[in-house]
Specification:
12 helices; mainly alpha; 216 residues; Serine Threonine Protein Phosphatase 5, Tetratricopeptide repeat; 0% strand
Protein backbone atom coordinates (compact mmCIF):
# COMPACT_ATOMS: atom_id res chain seq x y z
CA UNK A 1 0.00 0.00 0.00
CA UNK A 2 1.31 3.48 -0.88
CA UNK A 3 3.01 5.24 2.06
CA UNK A 4 0.82 8.32 1.85
CA UNK A 5 -2.25 6.10 1.61
CA UNK A 6 -1.28 4.42 4.89
CA UNK A 7 -0.78 7.87 6.40
CA UNK A 8 -4.25 8.95 5.28
CA UNK A 9 -5.93 5.83 6.62
CA UNK A 10 -4.16 6.22 9.95
CA UNK A 11 -4.85 9.92 10.12
CA UNK A 12 -8.50 9.59 9.24
CA UNK A 13 -9.24 7.96 12.55
CA UNK A 14 -8.10 11.16 14.27
CA UNK A 15 -9.96 13.41 11.85
CA UNK A 16 -9.85 17.07 12.81
CA UNK A 17 -10.32 16.80 16.54
CA UNK A 18 -7.58 16.29 19.08
CA UNK A 19 -8.20 13.53 21.58
CA UNK A 20 -6.53 13.74 24.95
CA UNK A 21 -4.31 10.84 25.86
CA UNK A 22 -6.71 8.22 27.13
CA UNK A 23 -6.11 6.33 30.34
CA UNK A 24 -5.16 2.69 29.82
CA UNK A 25 -8.25 0.52 29.52
CA UNK A 26 -8.41 -2.96 31.02
CA UNK A 27 -8.44 -5.45 28.12
CA UNK A 28 -11.25 -7.33 29.87
CA UNK A 29 -13.36 -4.15 29.85
CA UNK A 30 -12.60 -3.57 26.17
CA UNK A 31 -13.57 -7.16 25.46
CA UNK A 32 -16.80 -6.81 27.41
CA UNK A 33 -17.92 -3.59 25.69
CA UNK A 34 -16.86 -4.96 22.31
CA UNK A 35 -18.88 -8.12 22.91
CA UNK A 36 -21.99 -6.04 23.59
CA UNK A 37 -21.48 -4.14 20.33
CA UNK A 38 -20.92 -7.36 18.42
CA UNK A 39 -24.14 -8.78 19.89
CA UNK A 40 -26.14 -5.93 18.37
CA UNK A 41 -27.06 -7.56 15.08
CA UNK A 42 -28.82 -4.39 13.90
CA UNK A 43 -25.60 -2.42 14.34
CA UNK A 44 -23.53 -5.14 12.69
CA UNK A 45 -25.91 -5.18 9.71
CA UNK A 46 -25.79 -1.40 9.40
CA UNK A 47 -21.98 -1.50 9.47
CA UNK A 48 -22.02 -3.66 6.34
CA UNK A 49 -23.76 -0.88 4.41
CA UNK A 50 -21.86 1.86 2.61
CA UNK A 51 -21.46 4.85 4.96
CA UNK A 52 -22.60 7.20 2.20
CA UNK A 53 -26.00 5.50 2.40
CA UNK A 54 -26.20 6.33 6.12
CA UNK A 55 -24.90 9.88 5.83
CA UNK A 56 -27.15 12.59 7.24
CA UNK A 57 -28.59 15.45 5.26
CA UNK A 58 -26.72 18.71 5.73
CA UNK A 59 -29.45 20.03 8.02
CA UNK A 60 -29.08 16.98 10.30
CA UNK A 61 -25.30 17.08 10.76
CA UNK A 62 -23.86 17.65 14.21
CA UNK A 63 -20.44 18.89 15.25
CA UNK A 64 -18.18 16.59 17.25
CA UNK A 65 -18.36 17.54 20.93
CA UNK A 66 -16.17 16.79 23.95
CA UNK A 67 -15.06 13.23 24.55
CA UNK A 68 -17.03 11.67 27.43
CA UNK A 69 -15.71 8.17 26.74
CA UNK A 70 -11.99 8.38 27.42
CA UNK A 71 -11.71 6.79 30.88
CA UNK A 72 -12.57 3.21 31.84
CA UNK A 73 -15.23 4.44 34.28
CA UNK A 74 -17.10 6.21 31.49
CA UNK A 75 -17.36 3.40 28.96
CA UNK A 76 -20.49 1.66 30.22
CA UNK A 77 -22.48 4.90 30.42
CA UNK A 78 -21.08 5.94 27.06
CA UNK A 79 -22.42 2.77 25.45
CA UNK A 80 -25.83 3.38 27.02
CA UNK A 81 -25.96 6.91 25.62
CA UNK A 82 -24.90 5.59 22.23
CA UNK A 83 -27.72 3.05 22.37
CA UNK A 84 -30.11 5.90 23.24
CA UNK A 85 -29.07 7.81 20.12
CA UNK A 86 -26.12 10.01 21.11
CA UNK A 87 -23.89 9.96 18.03
CA UNK A 88 -21.10 11.85 19.76
CA UNK A 89 -20.75 9.12 22.38
CA UNK A 90 -20.88 6.43 19.68
CA UNK A 91 -18.02 8.17 17.91
CA UNK A 92 -15.79 8.61 20.95
CA UNK A 93 -16.51 5.14 22.28
CA UNK A 94 -15.41 3.76 18.92
CA UNK A 95 -12.23 5.84 19.10
CA UNK A 96 -11.44 4.64 22.62
CA UNK A 97 -11.99 0.99 21.71
CA UNK A 98 -9.89 1.37 18.58
CA UNK A 99 -7.04 3.02 20.49
CA UNK A 100 -7.23 0.16 23.00
CA UNK A 101 -6.77 -2.27 20.08
CA UNK A 102 -10.16 -3.88 20.48
CA UNK A 103 -11.62 -5.98 17.66
CA UNK A 104 -12.79 -4.05 14.61
CA UNK A 105 -16.25 -5.62 14.87
CA UNK A 106 -16.51 -3.95 18.28
CA UNK A 107 -15.85 -0.39 17.14
CA UNK A 108 -16.54 -0.11 13.39
CA UNK A 109 -20.32 -0.42 13.92
CA UNK A 110 -20.06 2.46 16.40
CA UNK A 111 -18.50 4.69 13.75
CA UNK A 112 -21.31 3.71 11.37
CA UNK A 113 -23.93 4.44 14.02
CA UNK A 114 -22.31 7.81 14.72
CA UNK A 115 -22.49 8.47 10.99
CA UNK A 116 -26.20 7.68 10.84
CA UNK A 117 -26.81 9.90 13.88
CA UNK A 118 -25.30 12.98 12.25
CA UNK A 119 -21.54 12.80 12.98
CA UNK A 120 -19.92 13.15 9.55
CA UNK A 121 -16.56 12.23 11.05
CA UNK A 122 -18.05 8.84 11.86
CA UNK A 123 -18.81 8.34 8.17
CA UNK A 124 -15.23 9.19 7.21
CA UNK A 125 -13.82 6.84 9.85
CA UNK A 126 -16.04 3.97 8.79
CA UNK A 127 -15.01 4.39 5.15
CA UNK A 128 -11.35 4.47 6.18
CA UNK A 129 -11.90 1.30 8.21
CA UNK A 130 -13.40 -0.44 5.21
CA UNK A 131 -10.33 0.44 3.16
CA UNK A 132 -8.00 -0.73 5.91
CA UNK A 133 -9.75 -4.10 5.89
CA UNK A 134 -10.09 -4.54 2.12
CA UNK A 135 -8.32 -1.81 0.16
CA UNK A 136 -7.99 -3.87 -3.03
CA UNK A 137 -11.71 -4.56 -3.40
CA UNK A 138 -13.18 -2.37 -6.16
CA UNK A 139 -16.62 -2.16 -4.56
CA UNK A 140 -15.03 -1.11 -1.27
CA UNK A 141 -13.01 1.57 -3.02
CA UNK A 142 -16.07 2.87 -4.84
CA UNK A 143 -18.06 3.05 -1.60
CA UNK A 144 -15.22 4.75 0.27
CA UNK A 145 -14.71 7.36 -2.45
CA UNK A 146 -18.44 8.09 -2.53
CA UNK A 147 -18.35 8.55 1.24
CA UNK A 148 -15.28 10.79 1.22
CA UNK A 149 -16.82 12.91 -1.53
CA UNK A 150 -20.10 13.41 0.32
CA UNK A 151 -18.38 13.95 3.68
CA UNK A 152 -16.05 16.51 2.10
CA UNK A 153 -19.11 18.34 0.76
CA UNK A 154 -20.23 18.45 4.40
CA UNK A 155 -16.86 20.03 5.32
CA UNK A 156 -15.13 17.13 7.05
CA UNK A 157 -11.40 17.90 6.62
CA UNK A 158 -10.08 14.32 6.64
CA UNK A 159 -12.72 13.33 4.12
CA UNK A 160 -11.41 16.06 1.81
CA UNK A 161 -7.83 14.83 2.24
CA UNK A 162 -8.89 11.26 1.51
CA UNK A 163 -11.02 12.25 -1.47
CA UNK A 164 -8.22 14.40 -2.86
CA UNK A 165 -5.81 11.48 -2.57
CA UNK A 166 -8.12 9.14 -4.46
CA UNK A 167 -8.71 11.74 -7.18
CA UNK A 168 -4.98 12.30 -7.55
CA UNK A 169 -4.29 8.59 -7.97
CA UNK A 170 -7.45 7.53 -9.80
CA UNK A 171 -8.31 5.00 -7.09
CA UNK A 172 -12.00 4.19 -7.17
CA UNK A 173 -12.65 7.26 -9.30
CA UNK A 174 -11.38 8.77 -12.57
CA UNK A 175 -8.14 10.67 -11.97
CA UNK A 176 -8.58 14.44 -11.86
CA UNK A 177 -5.59 16.43 -10.63
CA UNK A 178 -7.31 19.80 -10.92
CA UNK A 179 -10.31 18.68 -8.87
CA UNK A 180 -7.97 17.05 -6.35
CA UNK A 181 -6.16 20.34 -5.80
CA UNK A 182 -9.48 22.12 -5.32
CA UNK A 183 -10.81 19.51 -2.91
CA UNK A 184 -7.62 19.56 -0.84
CA UNK A 185 -8.05 23.29 -0.24
CA UNK A 186 -10.96 22.32 2.04
CA UNK A 187 -8.78 20.20 4.33
CA UNK A 188 -7.57 23.06 6.51
CA UNK A 189 -10.76 23.89 8.40
CA UNK A 190 -8.89 23.53 11.70
CA UNK A 191 -5.70 25.26 10.65
CA UNK A 192 -2.26 24.27 9.35
CA UNK A 193 -1.30 22.25 12.41
CA UNK A 194 -4.14 19.77 11.83
CA UNK A 195 -2.74 16.58 10.26
CA UNK A 196 -5.59 16.62 7.73
CA UNK A 197 -4.27 19.98 6.54
CA UNK A 198 -0.56 19.13 6.59
CA UNK A 199 -1.30 15.90 4.71
CA UNK A 200 -3.34 17.80 2.15
CA UNK A 201 -0.57 20.36 1.63
CA UNK A 202 1.98 17.57 1.13
CA UNK A 203 -0.29 15.91 -1.39
CA UNK A 204 -0.93 19.17 -3.25
CA UNK A 205 2.79 19.66 -3.67
CA UNK A 206 3.15 16.12 -5.03
CA UNK A 207 0.33 16.75 -7.51
CA UNK A 208 1.79 20.07 -8.66
CA UNK A 209 5.23 18.48 -9.08
CA UNK A 210 3.70 15.70 -11.19
CA UNK A 211 1.91 18.30 -13.34
CA UNK A 212 5.16 20.21 -13.85
CA UNK A 213 7.05 17.05 -14.71
CA UNK A 214 4.45 16.06 -17.32
CA UNK A 215 4.75 19.34 -19.22
CA UNK A 216 6.77 19.20 -22.47
Amino acid sequence: MHRFYRFCLLGAVWLSTFAASAAPVDPALVEGISAKVQARQDWQAQARQCPSDNMPARTATRATQANRCETPEQLGACLQRCEAGDGNDCYWLATTLQQAKGPAAGYEPLYQRACSLGLVSGCTNRAAGMLTADADNQATRHCAVQTFNKACELNDPWACTMYGFHLSRGIGVAPDADLALKVLDKSCKYGPADPACSGARQLQEEIREAIRAARP
